[in-house]
């Protein structure tokens, strides 16, 4: 495999890590230290690497020990800090997914493998995650024999249950057994959110170093790392090695290095004991005679005698320094007064159980004096540590402990202990050729005469001297020392330095390491890119967009869209290169002089039923609805408990116990929640229910003096409809609803058909001569009539009275939401801002919305009853007084809420909220583009007498339509793409036009239960009174095949296992709400709102592409 490092072309082998490939090419210096710029080499073979940090592609900093080599890889060395290349092309696909299990096993070494097998044998749903490309843990790096055969043969024979995720690192362990893991894939990382009933941590242990002079030279390496490169990768570029064996694992490293052809110059063991019986013979048999060769060459009889007497090992001695060449690369090792030539110093300082995830779970660690390491103590969650991560370093011990941990976890998760005398899922523990392990020496720091710094943290360049300075200032807390020196804050998060820092502090303070304690282990366990956490840029899929049934028609007509809530609404329809201003003026003229049409499908629609529906609405709205006649419509305002305007809209009485409420587009969901909240918490005794039908009905507003001609053609049964009345009528031959409601002041009809016929209705209306108009024209038309719009004329501080709508607040009703707040002195005072109209002196000047209003001459008239304090001194102001600017400060009396250019008026105009002003008063509008003199007028600019509301009479025969009325399902446009994306593993299709009803109250005996007294019934069944037709509200997307669940778990947080998933549920898929139903194994139906279908279809296609 070809790759480059710092521009130099090199070659590696398949299966290499970048670190292994660099050693294969005899690259010793891989970077410079972050603070001191000292040369650094590869130190470890795993994610704990502090030195070999590189930039690869768009990743600004990775450990070379974790980067899998691929052909064409380009890597660049770093000086301890990542470097972002703005020009780098990042084509990774970073995704996420959700997993659930009974038992999660973290770690694929001997203990983890045994735990997974045991848990699976007891029937537990098991997930095994491991950071390596292959399972085996440390068995991958050793020449260990199990039952007389290579250890990996034992791994290959295991029958692992459940899901196995290799190249997956658990990075965080949070409350309620919530574990986050990162899976490395060729096309990008996947962030897994895992929920487990029980967790088995089999995370192994990290070999530790110790602090001695010159311990940072390239060529100084952990003994386990040198052993890994020799055994696993076949890389042993060193000529002569010294092994600093504070633990028996140093002897294993010496044996394996010697077998790989490396001459063992010396083994330095600080412990006074000699080698275990037979160990020297084994060492010599595998090439350790180099020891004796070195001794003879030195001619040092004393040293020879000592080594012979102790079995060929320097016992009771320590490494006191190193020497290097001009580049700083290791050339020799100092042992007391002796210098031994070597290009490798393999350090085996002992082992630190990887307690990081255990500690993140809020478990408490304790210090084990025998192991000289912190081990798991008291668990805080449903967790069990196993194997080396709890101090059991022997392979047989780890396997036995893993079997026990897996069985215990499965029994707790499944809540059924194994029968007495029965199998607990534990397998046979294989025989092993390992020797018993002796306790390591309690050695953390070594002094030396060289004057070279001894490093406690290689990545952060923290030395023993730095720690001495920190403790010398009086610091005793390891957390304080960490922050003072930055020890443990590097990319390895203290994996190679944490124990060393604690050990050095214990020596400096004269306290035991257990008394010093550890720093806090925080997620993530390894560095994680922001790209992985944030996910890739998914374009429109990053935020769900709702579209109407007419959306494709709008796009075809060149509509410019604006976002209203989650909806894409046509803003205006430019023609022939028109500017926005020109298009809006043309649309306004059409609505005022001829006929125009707008897609109003986005308005919220709530079906309200029940014997107490009228009484409930009386309490919610400020005006009366229980007295409304059947077939009549009424405009209403609802307020919050604070008396401020919450929403407005028209409500129609369809039958004695049946109403249809419309809301503003952006407040539809909020209002539905508002109704449910008051019903469930305050008035549960009222018999009333609410069903959203926003998506079920497609709505076209036909407005203008000649609107009757269009309506007569599409809905002849509604042509004679009176103002503020409703009729159920055929529309294009389809059962629909027509309302005579006007938000423009012109003759207007709101024509409703089920979603499937929305586009046909729209095309028919436009084909009859109606000019399409967008939301900007709608705003101009309503503002000309002085109609306030929620969210523009209101901001949460405006009452109906402030809008000049005292007439809509009933004085007859005993109560309604907000009534008491309307009686508060603050809301009743006369100097509140009120809705007014403004005319700029310059009729062509468009005042900026939000412009502040001040008096033209700095003097502001105050209304009756005003009780304000003057700007200076807090002196009360009498009613009728005038407030004058003080020291150049002009009081602000209001602000502009709406500002438009009117075709009907032939000029610009504004709506505003201002206090203490009336018609004829002069003000100045101040904004970023300067000042503009304006005159206050009444807020109704156009047709104040409502003479135009009835339009022109219908003369002659109405036009007849000749349009094809064809139903179109929400996902019809995706049929071909669904077919193309399908295959043997997964298939996607729409199930269109499925009849559906929402049912409240008694159990209908069929359908999907959505909540208390709430069902969705679908299919061809016999309907019953009170069922709400929602056939157009949703469509069904059917996902099937063996990989169907793999698609769903990338966006659905639910546990879909048959033992847990009841068959259906309301949930999120991607970022939209759906009803998910399992029809059969590997077959799911997704009920999605029609307006979200386009988003979800794209999301599913994208998810299918990812698997």
UniProtKB/TrEMBL annotation:
Keywords: Oxidoreductase. Residues 550-813 form the GCVT N-terminal domain. The keyword Manganese does not apply. It holds the Pfam family GCV_T. InterPro entries: 2Fe-2S-bd_N, BFD-like_2Fe2S-bd_dom_sf, FAD/NAD-bd_sf, FAD/NAD-binding_dom, GcvT/YgfZ/DmdA, GcvT/YgfZ_C, GcvT_C, GCVT_N. GO terms for molecular function: oxidoreductase activity. Residues 102-373 form the FAD/NAD(P)-binding domain. SUPFAM superfamilies: Aminomethyltransferase beta-barrel domain, FAD/NAD(P)-binding domain, Folate-binding domain. It comes from the Bacteria. Residues 412-433 are annotated as: Disordered. Residues 833-943 form the Aminomethyltransferase C-terminal domain. Residues 454-536 form the SoxA A3 domain. Gene3D superfamilies: 2Fe-2S iron-sulphur cluster binding domain, sarcosine oxidase, alpha subunit, N-terminal domain (3.10.20.440), BFD-like [2Fe-2S]-binding domain (1.10.10.1100), FAD/NAD(P)-binding domain (3.50.50.60), Heterotetrameric sarcosine oxidase (3.30.70.1520), Probable tRNA modification gtpase trme, domain 1 (3.30.1360.120). Belongs to the GcvT family. This is Ferredoxin.
């Amino acid at each position: 495999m070809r790759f480059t490092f710092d521009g130099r072309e090199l070659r590696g082998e398949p299966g290499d890590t970048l670190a292994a490939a660099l050693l294969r090419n005899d690259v010793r210096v891989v970077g410079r230290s972050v603070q001191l710029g000292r040369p650094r080499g590869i130190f470890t073979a795993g994610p704990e690497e502090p030195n070999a940090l590189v930039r690869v592609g768009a990743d600004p900093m990775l450990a070379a020990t974790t980067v899998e080599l691929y052909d064409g890889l380009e890597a660049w060395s770093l000086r301890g800090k990542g470097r972002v290349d703005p020009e780098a092309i990042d084509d990774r696909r970073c995704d996420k997914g959700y997993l659930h299990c009974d038992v999660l096993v973290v770690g694929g070494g001997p203990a983890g493998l045994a735990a997974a097998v045991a848990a699976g044998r007891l029937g537990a749903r098991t997930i095994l995650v491991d950071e390596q490309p292959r399972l085996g843990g440390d068995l991958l790096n050793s020449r260990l024999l199990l039952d007389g055969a290579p250890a990996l043969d034992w791994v290959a024979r295991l029958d692992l249950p459940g899901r196995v995720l290799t190249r997956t690192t658990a990075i965080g362990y949070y409350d309620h057994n919530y574990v986050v893991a990162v899976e490395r894939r060729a096309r990008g990382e996947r962030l897994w959110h895992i929920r487990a009933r029980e967790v088995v941590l089999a995370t192994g242990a990290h070999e530790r170093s110790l602090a001695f002079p010159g311990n940072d030279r390239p060529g100084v390496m952990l003994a386990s790392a040198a052993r890994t490169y020799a055994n696993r990768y076949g890389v042993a570029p060193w000529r002569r090695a010294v092994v600093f064996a504070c633990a028996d694992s140093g002897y294993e490293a010496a044996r394996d290095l010697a077998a790989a052809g490396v001459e063992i110059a010396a083994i330095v063991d600080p412990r006074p004991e000699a080698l275990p019986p037979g160990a020297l013979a084994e060492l010599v048999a595998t090439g350790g005679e180099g020891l004796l060769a070195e001794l003879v060459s030195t001619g040092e009889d004393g040293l020879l005698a000592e080594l012979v007497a102790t079995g060929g090992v320097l016992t009771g001695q320590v490494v006191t320094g190193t020497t290097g060449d001009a580049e700083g690369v290791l050339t020799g090792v100092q042992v007391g007064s002796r210098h031994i030539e070597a290009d490798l110093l393999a350090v085996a300082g002992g082992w630190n159980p990887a307690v990081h995830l255990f500690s993140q779970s809020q478990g408490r660690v304790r210090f084990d004096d025998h192991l000289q390491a912190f081990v798991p103590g008291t668990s805080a969650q449903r967790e069990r540590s196993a194997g080396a991560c709890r101090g059991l370093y022997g392979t047989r011990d780890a396997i036995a402990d893993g079997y026990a941990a897996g069985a215990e976890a499965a029994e707790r998760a499944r809540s059924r202990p194994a029968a007495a005398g029965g199998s607990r899922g534990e397998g046979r523990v294989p025989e092993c050729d390992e020797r018993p392990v002796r306790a390591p020496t309690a050695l953390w720091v070594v002094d030396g005469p060289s004057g070279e710094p001894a490093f406690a943290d290689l990545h952060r360049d923290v030395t023993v001297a730095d720690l001495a300075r920190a403790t010398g200032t009086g610091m005793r807390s390891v957390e304080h020392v960490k922050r003072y020196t930055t020890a443990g804050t590097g990319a390895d998060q203290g994996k190679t330095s944490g124990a060393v820092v604690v050990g050095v502090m214990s020596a400096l303070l004269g306290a035991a390491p257990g008394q010093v304690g550890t720093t806090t282990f925080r997620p993530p366990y390894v560095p994680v890119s922001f790209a992985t956490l944030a996910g890739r840029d998914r374009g429109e899929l990053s935020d769900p967009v709702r579209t109407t049934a007419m959306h494709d028609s709008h796009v075809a007509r060149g509509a410019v869209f604006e976002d209203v809530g989650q909806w894409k609404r046509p803003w205006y329809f430019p023609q022939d290169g028109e500017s926005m201003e020109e298009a809006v003026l043309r649309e306004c003229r059409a609505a005022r002089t001829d006929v125009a049409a707008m897609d109003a499908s986005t308005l919220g629609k709530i079906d309200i039923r029940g014997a107490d529906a009228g009484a409930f609405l009386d309490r919610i709205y400020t005006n009366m609805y229980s007295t409304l006649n059947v077939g009549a419509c009424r405009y209403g305002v609802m307020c919050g408990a604070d008396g401020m305007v919450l929403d407005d809209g028209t409500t129609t009485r369809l039958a004695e116990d049946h109403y249809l409420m419309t809301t503003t587009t952006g407040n539809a969901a909020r209002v539905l929640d508002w109704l449910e909240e008051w019903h469930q918490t305050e008035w549960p005794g009222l018999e009333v229910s609410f069903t959203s039908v926003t998506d079920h009905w497609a709505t076209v507003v036909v407005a203008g003096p000649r609107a009757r001609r269009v309506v007569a053609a599409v809905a002849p049964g509604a042509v004679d409809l009176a103002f503020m009345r409703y009729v159920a009528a055929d529309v294009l031959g389809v059962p629909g609803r027509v309302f005579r409601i006007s938000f423009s002041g012109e003759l207007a009809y709101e024509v409703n058909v089920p979603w499937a016929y929305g586009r046909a209705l729209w095309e028919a209306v436009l084909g009859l001569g109606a000019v399409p108009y967008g939301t900007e024209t709608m705003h101009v038309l309503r503002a000309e009539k002085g109609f306030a719009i929620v969210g523009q004329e209101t901001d949460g501080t405006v009452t109906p009275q402030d809008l000049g709508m005292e007439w809509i607040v009933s004085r007859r009703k005993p109560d309604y939401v907000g009534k008491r707040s309307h009686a508060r002195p603050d809301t009743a005072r006369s100097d509140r801002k009120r809705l007014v109209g403004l005319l700029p002196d310059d009729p062509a000047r468009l005042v900026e919305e939000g412009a502040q209003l001040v008096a033209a001459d700095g003097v502001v008239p105050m209304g009756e009853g005003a009780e304000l304090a003057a700007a200076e001194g807090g002196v009360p102001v009498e009613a009728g007084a005038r407030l004058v600017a003080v020291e150049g400060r002009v009081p602000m009396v209001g602000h502009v809420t709406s500002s438009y250019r009117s075709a009907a008026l032939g000029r610009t105009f504004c709506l505003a909220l201002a206090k203490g002003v009336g018609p004829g008063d002069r003000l100045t509008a101040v904004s970023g583009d300067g000042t503009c003199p304006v005159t206050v007028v009444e807020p109704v600019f156009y047709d104040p007498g409502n003479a135009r509301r009835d339009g022109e009479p219908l003369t002659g025969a109405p036009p007849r339509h000749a349009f094809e009325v064809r139903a179109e399902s929400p996902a019809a446009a995706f049929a071909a793409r669904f077919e193309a994306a399908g295959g043997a593993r997964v298939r996607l299709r729409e199930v269109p036009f499925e009849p559906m009803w929402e049912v409240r109250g008694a159990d209908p005996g069929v359908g999907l239960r959505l909540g208390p007294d709430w069902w969705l019934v679908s299919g061809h069944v016999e309907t019953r009174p009170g069922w709400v037709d929602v056939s157009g509200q949703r469509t069904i997307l059917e996902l099937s095949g063996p990989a169907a669940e793999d698609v769903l778990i990338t966006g659905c947080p639910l546990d879909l296992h048959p033992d847990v998933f009841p068959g259906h549920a309301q949930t999120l898929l991607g970022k939209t709400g759906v009803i998910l139903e399992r029809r059969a194994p590997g077959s799911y139906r997704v009920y999605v709102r029609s307006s979200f279908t386009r988003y979800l279809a794209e999301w599913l296609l994208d998810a299918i592409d990812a698997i």
